[in-house]
Amino acid sequence: MDSDIILSMSDIRKEFPGVVALDDVSFELRKGEVHILLGENGAGKSTLMKILSGAYQKDQGQIHLNGKEIQILNPKHAQDLGIGIIYQEFNLNPHMTVAENIFLGREPVNRFGIIDEKKLYHSARAIIQDIGVEIGLNKVVSEIGIAQQQMVEVAKALSLNARVLIMDEPSAPLTKHEITQLFEMIRRLTKQGVSIVYISHRMSELYEIGDKVTVLRDGKYIGTKKISDINRQDLIKMMVNRDLDEQYPARNPKISEEVLRVEGLERKGVLSNINFKLHRGEILGIAGLMGSGRTELARAIYGVDKISAGKIFVRNKLQNINSPRKAIKLGMGFLTEDRKSEGLVLVLTVKKNITLSSIDKYLRFGVLNYKDELKKVNHYIESLRVKTPGPNQKVLNLSGGNQQKVVLSKWLCCHSDIFIFDEPTRGIDIGAKAEIYNLMSTLTQKGVAIIMISSELPEILGMSDRILVMNKGTIAGELTREQANQEKIMEYAIGEPGNYN
To answer: Does pTM surpass 0.90?
Structure first.
């Protein structure tokens, strides 16, 4: 075996009831490299890494670490072997300090068995300095930002002498500046000999931070390439087994009557004098920088947050939307930015999530008509092509793209015809994105009206028929599809628009 290869996984197989998650998958990691693990949601990336981190047990195959075959028994055993994993959902105690979190459960003690605070903070400071970041060790974790919390997770893993570090979508919640800091830290770690497995859906990141890329598809190993030897289009083809030149469907909308009108909407300190119209068959894109008020606008329209002034007309009738329940009754559906905590009940089945907001439609004298409910659920599973072993599969076991389809099915089941999509493809792989875009386009052809909020400018430009740009809680500008480009949107977003008339 090549002496530079510190980890190899060979012919790994893992089955769950009704699903082969991994089918003879292999993976190699060299010392000091950043190896990208790429594939659509459901391709098997997370399952493979959970086997490596001890959360799952493989059904067959071999794992070698530093040339020696190992059996990883559990997460603690993986840590002892020098394998660390940083999930998207951090595992930190929000009420303890940064230093205390780094050594949580392993605090140094003096000869009397009392925690040695001086040694704890000294050791924590050494690790933080080693990864080249600045974090106040005395700060309570709940008081620091997401990016710094991520650095604390890295420091915690390194305090366990991790030489293999798995990072699952580490840049997803970060700003552009924070991503730059993350990459600087990763480069520093690899120079120290740490090897990193990096899972990401952001194609641009691969070329900035990666050395090699391994692609999985439908639980199978497709291939490994040097990043410098493969272009973006070929990578996409490896992932989805098809070209995605036309990622965004051709838009030929039949825009008709107004279905939503907002006049002078205010929310004190958050939103100011918001005015716009939405028409049947239209996708209205809302762009803007983080903190511009995009999500706050959606929440205000949907009755989640109380407005202090303004009027909302639905189908030309003035409405007092003082709760999401009222919005639902008016035929409005809201696909929130955080689908896992706000759009779904993860421990419930696909069936229960789809009918959650419309269960009264299947009640006969207070008794649930299971046959009608199942018929409707199977209709949406089939028409939206939800990849699931069946309607009784728990939603938490689905990929991000399929979870988003379940949320969409829920609102279609309520007969919604006005949709608010907040970051519709966040955390979704490139193949599933194309499916979501096609679904949105199909909905508008059937007369549905969509407000689409997105921080992805290509998405805004590729899908919107008209674009509103927000800045500091106001609508800074409006652009037609023909007028819009990234430069014009960004100039409005930062408050320095040119003359586009």
So the answer is: no
